[in-house]
Amino acid sequence: MYLNGEFTVTEGQYARRKIFTLIGLYSPKGPDWTNMGRSLVRGMLNSARGISDKDMSAEAQAARRISGFADLDGIEFIARIDIGTDASGDDKNEIRSAVTPDHRDYTQVMGTAPLQFSGNAGPVASPQQNAAAQTSSSNPPAANPGAPGRPSWAQ
User: Fold this and answer.
1) Structural domain contains residue 155
2) Please, what sign has the CA dihedral across residues 116, 36, 76, 107?
3) Residue 31 is part of which domain span?
């Protein structure tokens, strides 16, 4: 069982290009697909909401909760995109992982620092941080790994 994800690059040279990635939810062969899928969804939420993966506070855990897969519709996050192969053996771009605030280049791409949680007030961020999070970007597809200006982690 899996989610059939359709992602759109929002900025840069490859803006408006589509990337299709399967997100594993369950496999009778074992927990590997489930764990990889959960890890990707958690990374997407951490990236989009500016949460460090190491933040285990109640507020951060609440920010990672979704009520259903529809909550992922329209989420903007930074992604690491690589070249994989499709069923017919042809190359295709696919999302390998989400880039979270723990990565050294996150603030360069996102333009914000990770959010800090304080009590029940929720995330604390300046208006500039909130605006930047609403206009986040994705990496260009890996079809052109030598593209100038590409962050080192995207290669």
Assistant:
1) no
2) positive
3) 2-148
Element (H, E) at 43: helix 32-49
Count of domains in the chain? 1
pTM, two decimals, is 0.69
Q: How far apart are CA 52 and CA 99, in angstroms?
A: 10
Rounded average pLDDT per 10-residue block, the chain, 155 residues: 92 91 90 93 95 94 93 93 91 92 84 49 33 32 37 35
Closest CA to 44 of 109, 104, 122, 100: 100
In a domain, residue 91? The reply is yes
> Tokens at residue 134, please?
């609403």
* Distances in whole angstroms, Cα of residue 92 to Cα of each of 25, 99, 143: 21, 20, 8
Which residues are bridge partners to 82 per DSSP?
Answer: 94
| 129 within domain boundaries | yes
